[in-house]
Design goal:
heterodimer; A: mainly alpha; two-stranded parallel sheet; 4 strands; B: alpha+beta; six-stranded antiparallel sheet; 29% helix; 27% strand
Chain lengths: 345, 256
C-alpha cells in the first residue's frame, strides 16, 4: 500500500514537472512570436488610447487625398516617438518604419496605402439599423389608389414609370457594378444529407447589394453634431475581431436577384423584415430574410411547397436525396431542411 | 473512489413553438385610402386586459405633434413646409436629400450651408450633402429625441418583445419567430397565445392623430394577420383618435 502511494506521489510530481515545462516552452515560444515592431496592433495595451490621440480628423492632406474631410493618412511621427524614440534609430533600416512606410529607411518617404485593408479585421463595426430606420426613413406619401384592400400577399402593386427609390437603405446599399466576392453562408444547425450535385449556376452583380466601405456614408451626418461624431471612432469601430468578412458577401439563397422586375419594385424592408429591429450587426445571426416573406406570397409559395414535398418524398422513398434548387445552389440545397422552413405550410 | 453522477441531457426536447403575425396598415380615413407606411409597431404579451395600464397611458398621454414641435422651436415656415409636402411627410431633415433649391428656399438650410462651405474647404457639393452637420441640435434630432423618450415612457412596465416598421408600399410588416407560451396557468394546452400590437406613438394623418392597440391571437400552426382599421369600434382594438392642435402657420399653407 505504502509503495503504491509513493509511486503515486512520484507520478504526480513528474506530471507536474511536465506541465511546467510545457507551459514554459509555450510561453517562451509565444514570446518569441510576439509581434515585431513592423507589425502594429491596436490591441497593444499602450496603443489603447483615445483614437484621436494619434488619428487626426480630418487628416491634413484630405483635400488632396479625397473628396471629403476624412482620415486619409497615417498618424504623424509624434504619435509614436513618445514610446518608440529609440526604435527610430536602430541601424540603417529601422523596423518600425515599415508600419507606415514602403521602405525601412530614414529617407524613405513613400507611405503604404491608407487605410490598410488587410488590417481591418482588428475591428468590427457597430451599426444599429433600427435607429437609422427611425431617423432617416424616407416617408414618401403613398398615392391613393383604388386597388382592393387587404389582399393577402402576392402583391404586385402597379408602379409608375419612375424607379422607386427606397432612400433609407440605398444611401448605403446599392447594386454593385462588378460581381463582388461571394460565398455560400454555412448553415449551422443542419447537416448535408448528400454530396452537392454539380453546379452551373453563376449569379451576376445585380444579384447583390454592396455595403459601405468608407466613411462617406457616415460622415455626411456624423462628421460633427450628430453623435457619434467623426472623432468618436470607437463608437462604431469596436476593437474586437470582426464577426464577418466585410470583403465577401455570404448568402444562403444565391439565386435571389435583387434587380428582377418583381423584386426591385418592393421596399427593402418588405423582405428584410428583421432589419428594422436590428440594433447590432452581430446579432443578425440567422437569415435576414425569413422564408415566410417568399413562401406566403403568391409568387413563390407554390414553388417552395413543391420543393419541400419533393425533398420529403425522396426521404420517404429512400431515393437519392432531392436537392433544393429553386432558391439555393446545390451547396446549400443538399442540407437538411432547417426548422425555419417549417413556416412553409 | 470518486463517484461522479452525470446527468445526461435529454435530446428529445420539444421544439419551441414559434408564431408570426402580419400587420397590414391600409385603411380608409374619411373615405380616402391611407397606407401606414414606414410606421413602427410594437408587440407585447397579453391582451387589452393584461395591458390595461399601457392602454390607459395611450389614451391619456398628450404628445406634441410634429408641427407643434417645430412651431415651438420657431422654425421658419419654409422649414416646416419642407418637412411636409404633397410628396413627402418628413419628421426630420434627415428624411430626404436637401437639394440646391431647398438650400436657397429654407433659411435654416442656407445658414447651415454657408457654415459648411467655410468648414469643408469651399466644396459646395459636400457642403450641401453634409448640411445637417451644421444644423442646430433641436432642428436636427430634437423631434426624434422627443419621440424616443415618449416611447420609453409609454412602454414603462409593458415590455415590448419585438418592434418592426411597415414597408413603404403596402404599409405591411411581419413579426416573426415569436416565442409562444401555449400552456395556461393550469398547465392546459392551448392553441394560441394573446398578444397586443400597438404603434404607441400617435400617427399624424390629416388633421387627426391615431394610436392603435389591438389584441391578436397567435398560434404556431398558422400565420396571424392584423388589419388595422380606423374605426374605433374595431373588434378587440382600441383606436385612440385625437384632433391635432393647429400649429401650422398661414404662410406655410400658402407656400405649399
Amino acid at each position: 500500500m505504502t509503495f503504491r502511494i509513493t509511486n503515486f506521489v512520484k507520478l504526480f510530481f513528474v506530471g507536474a514537472m511536465v506541465l511546467i515545462c510545457v507551459n514554459f516552452i509555450f510561453v517562451h515560444v509565444s514570446a518569441q512570436k510576439k509581434r515585431t515592431l513592423a507589425e502594429f496592433s491596436h490591441s497593444e495595451k499602450a496603443h489603447k488610447q483615445s483614437c484621436n490621440s494619434c488619428h487626426k480628423v480630418p487628416s491634413r492632406n484630405w483635400r488632396a487625398a479625397g473628396d471629403y474631410p476624412n482620415i486619409t493618412d497615417y498618424p504623424d511621427h509624434a504619435s509614436c516617438v513618445g514610446c518608440h524614440r529609440q526604435d527610430f534609430f536602430v541601424g540603417n533600416r529601422p523596423q518600425i518604419c515599415t508600419v507606415c512606410h514602403v521602405e525601412a529607411a530614414p529617407r524613405g518617404k513613400a507611405r503604404l496605402r491608407f487605410p490598410m485593408r488587410a488590417g481591418s479585421t482588428e475591428f468590427t463595426l457597430n451599426f444599429p439599423h433600427s435607429i437609422h430606420q427611425d431617423v432617416i426613413a424616407e416617408n414618401q406619401q403613398s398615392e391613393s389608389s383604388d386597388t382592393a384592400l387587404f389582399v393577402r400577399a402576392g402583391f404586385r402593386p402597379e408602379m409608375d414609370d419612375k424607379d422607386p427609390k427606397f432612400n433609407s437603405c440605398s444611401i448605403c446599399h446599392q447594386t454593385p457594378t462588378n460581381l463582388p466576392e461571394f460565398t455560400m453562408r454555412n448553415p449551422i444547425q443542419t447537416e448535408a444529407l448528400s454530396q452537392p450535385a454539380a453546379e452551373t449556376f453563376m449569379p451576376t452583380a445585380q444579384f447583390f447589394k454592396n455595403s459601405p466601405n468608407s466613411h462617406a456614408s457616415c460622415f455626411s451626418c456624423h462628421f460633427q453634431g450628430q453623435k457619434p461624431i467623426a472623432t468618436d471612432c470607437a463608437s462604431c469601430h469596436l476593437l474586437t475581431s470582426s464577426h464577418f468578412d466585410p470583403s465577401t458577401i455570404s448568402r444562403y439563397s444565391l439565386k435571389f436577384d435583387h434587380e428582377y422586375k418583381d423584386h426591385n419594385n418592393k421596399d427593402c424592408v418588405t423582405c428584410h423584415i428583421r432589419i428594422t429591429q436590428n440594433s447590432d450587426l452581430k446579432l443578425l445571426v440567422g437569415a435576414d430574410v425569413p422564408i415566410l416573406t417568399c413562401s406566403s406570397s403568391s409568387c413563390h409559395g407554390d414553388d417552395l411547397k413543391t420543393e419541400m414535398t419533393k425533398r420529403t418524398q425522396s426521404l420517404t422513398a429512400k431515393e437519392n436525396i432531392f436537392q433544393c434548387n429553386y432558391c439555393h445552389t446545390s451547396a446549400i440545397g443538399s442540407f437538411q431542411i432547417p426548422l425555419t422552413h417549417q413556416a412553409i405550410k | 473512489m470518486l463517484v461522479c453522477v452525470l446527468e445526461i441531457p435529454s435530446f428529445s426536447q420539444e421544439l419551441p413553438s414559434l408564431g408570426s403575425v402580419r400587420v397590414i396598415g391600409q385603411t380608409r380615413i374619411t373615405g380616402e385610402k391611407v397606407v401606414l407606411d414606414r410606421k413602427r409597431f410594437y408587440l407585447m404579451r397579453g391582451g387589452l386586459e393584461e395591458n390595461e395600464k399601457l392602454v390607459e397611458r395611450l389614451k391619456t398621454t398628450e404628445i406634441i405633434s410634429r408641427d407643434c414641435f417645430y412651431a415651438n422651436l420657431k422654425a421658419s415656415p419654409q422649414f416646416r413646409c419642407w418637412l411636409k409636402t404633397e410628396e413627402f411627410n418628413c419628421e426630420s431633415p434627415y428624411c430626404r436629400e436637401i437639394t440646391t433649391e431647398d438650400v436657397n428656399g429654407v433659411p435654416e438650410f442656407l445658414l447651415a450651408f454657408r457654415k459648411s462651405l467655410r468648414q469643408y474647404g469651399g466644396k459646395s457639393e459636400i457642403a450641401r450633402l453634409w448640411l445637417t452637420t451644421n444644423l442646430p441640435f433641436d432642428l436636427r434630432e430634437g423631434f426624434y429625441r422627443q419621440q424616443k423618450s415618449m416611447t420609453i415612457s409609454l412602454l414603462r412596465d409593458a415590455g415590448a418583445i419585438q418592434t418592426i416598421m411597415t414597408d413603404s408600399i403596402l404599409g405591411s410588416a411581419y413579426f416573426v419567430d415569436i416565442s409562444l407560451n401555449l400552456e395556461d396557468a393550469d398547465g392546459k394546452k392551448r392553441k394560441t397565445e394573446t398578444f397586443l400590437i400597438s404603434n404607441l406613438l400617435p400617427l399624424e394623418i390629416g388633421e387627426k392623430s391615431y394610436v392603435w392597440a389591438c389584441e391578436i391571437e397567435i398560434g404556431a400552426d398558422k400565420q396571424a394577420t392584423l388589419n388595422l382599421q380606423a374605426a374605433e369600434k374595431t373588434k378587440k382594438c382600441v383606436v385612440v383618435t385625437k384632433d391635432l392642435p393647429k400649429c401650422r402657420t398661414e404662410s406655410c399653407e400658402k407656400s405649399k
